[in-house]
Specification:
With about 290 residues, the protein is an alpha/beta fold. The protein has helices at about 1-15, 35, 50-55, 75-80, 90-95, 115-125, 160-185, 220-225, 235-240, 245-270, 285-290; strands at about 20-30, 65-70, 100-105, 125-130, 145-150, 185-190. The chain has a six-stranded mixed β-sheet, sandwiched between helices. The longest helix has 26 residues, at about 245-270. It is a single-pass type I membrane protein. InterPro entries: Big1 (IPR037654). It is found in: Endoplasmic reticulum membrane. Keywords: Cell wall biogenesis/degradation, Endoplasmic reticulum, Membrane, Signal, Transmembrane, Transmembrane helix.
Length: about 290
C-alpha cells in the first residue's frame, strides 16, 4: 500500500509540474543557423516567449522565403506524442536538416503570436498573412517573402475526444504545410501552443500559484459538531472489512494454496505398500502346537 501511494504521489507531482507548459516544435527545409544555434534543452526558468524571440531575431531568419508560425491554443506535449509517426509533422521533423523540439516550456501569459509575426515581418520586409487553415481566400505570391501566421482551433476537449480532434487538426495542418512547401521551397516552420484565454472573472491573478492550495480558512461548517452516528445496517455497511488486499489473499488461499495441499494429501494417502510374509510354505500351526 505504501509503494502504491508513492507511485501515485510521483505521478501527481509530474502532472502538476507540466500543467502550465506548452511545446515548441521548429524545423526548416534548408539548414538554418537560427535553429542550429539553439541548445538541445533549456533550463526550467526559460519560457516559450524567449525561445520564439531567439529564433525570430536570429541573423539568418530573413533568408527564408517563408516563415510559418502555427499557433494552437491549449496545445500540450502529450497531444504531439499521441500522433502517428506517419503524419506530416513527424516526417518533417525527421527529414529536416535543422530541427528543434522543446516539449515542456513554461507558458508565458503575455505571449502574443501576432505581435511576433508583425515584428519579424517588418524586420524582413515580408508580406504578412494571417489566416485559419482551410481558408480559401488566401493568395500566396511566389517569389516574394512571406510571414504566415496560422491560427489553429484551440484544444479544450479531454480524453478520446481530444485525441480525435488533434488528429483532424494535424491532417488539416499537413495539407496547408504541403502547399506552402511547394510554393516556398526554403521555409521555416514554428509550431507552438499558447495559453487558453479565460473570461476576466475567472482569470488568475499574477501571483496566484498554478498548483492547487488547501483551503485552511475556518468556516461555520468546520466549527459545527461532527456527526458521529454510525450508519444503519450490517457490519459491512459500518466498517470496511473487504479491502482489495484481503480479497486477493482470500482468493489466493482458497483457489491456490488449499487445492495444492489437498492434492498433496491425496497423493500421499494413495501410496500402498505390499504385505510381506516370511513364513514358509510348509508351516503347520497344528504341528507347532503339539511340539
Amino acid at each position: 500500500m505504501a509503494a502504491r501511494f508513492l507511485v501515485v504521489a510521483a505521478v501527481a507531482n509530474a502532472v502538476l509540474a507540466y500543467s502550465n507548459t506548452s511545446p515548441i516544435v521548429a524545423w526548416s527545409s534548408l539548414s538554418s543557423f537560427a535553429l542550429d544555434s539553439l541548445p538541445s534543452r533549456f533550463d526550467s526558468d526559460v519560457h516559450s516567449a524567449s525561445i520564439l524571440e531567439s529564433i525570430l531575431n536570429a541573423d539568418d531568419v530573413c533568408n527564408h522565403e517563408a516563415i510559418v508560425i502555427v499557433d494552437q491554443p491549449g496545445l500540450h506535449a502529450s497531444d504531439l506524442r499521441s500522433l502517428s509517426p506517419n503524419t506530416h509533422l513527424a516526417r518533417s521533423l525527421s527529414l529536416s536538416p535543422s530541427a528543434r523540439q522543446y516539449p515542456y516550456l513554461p507558458a508565458h501569459p503575455s505571449l502574443d503570436i501576432t505581435s511576433l509575426a508583425e515584428s519579424v515581418s517588418s524586420k524582413c520586409r515580408s508580406q504578412l498573412l494571417q489566416y485559419v487553415p482551410g481558408q480559401s481566400d488566401v493568395t500566396l505570391k511566389h517569389g516574394s517573402k512571406h510571414v504566415i501566421c496560422m491560427n489553429m482551433p484551440h484544444l479544450a476537449e479531454s480524453g478520446k475526444e481530444r485525441k480525435n480532434a488533434m488528429v483532424k487538426h494535424e491532417t488539416l495542418l499537413g495539407i496547408e504545410l504541403s502547399t506552402l512547401a511547394s510554393t516556398f521551397p526554403d521555409h521555416l516552420v514554428i509550431y507552438t501552443g499558447s495559453p487558453l484565454h479565460s473570461s476576466p472573472s475567472k482569470r488568475q491573478a499574477p501571483n496566484t500559484p498554478d498548483r492547487p492550495v488547501l483551503d485552511l480558512s475556518i468556516s461555520a461548517d468546520t466549527l459545527a459538531p461532527a456527526n458521529t452516528t454510525l450508519p444503519t445496517g450490517g457490519i459491512l455497511k459500518k466498517y470496511q472489512l473487504l479491502t482489495p488486499g484481503l480479497i486477493t489473499s482470500l482468493l489466493v488461499t482458497f483457489f491456490i494454496l488449499i487445492p495444492v495441499v489437498l492434492m498433496g494429501m491425496n497423493a500421499l494417502a494413495s501410496i500402498q505398500t505390499p504385505i510381506r510374509s516370511d513364513m514358509g510354505k510348509t508351516f503347520n500351526a497344528q504341528e507347532r502346537k503339539n511340539q
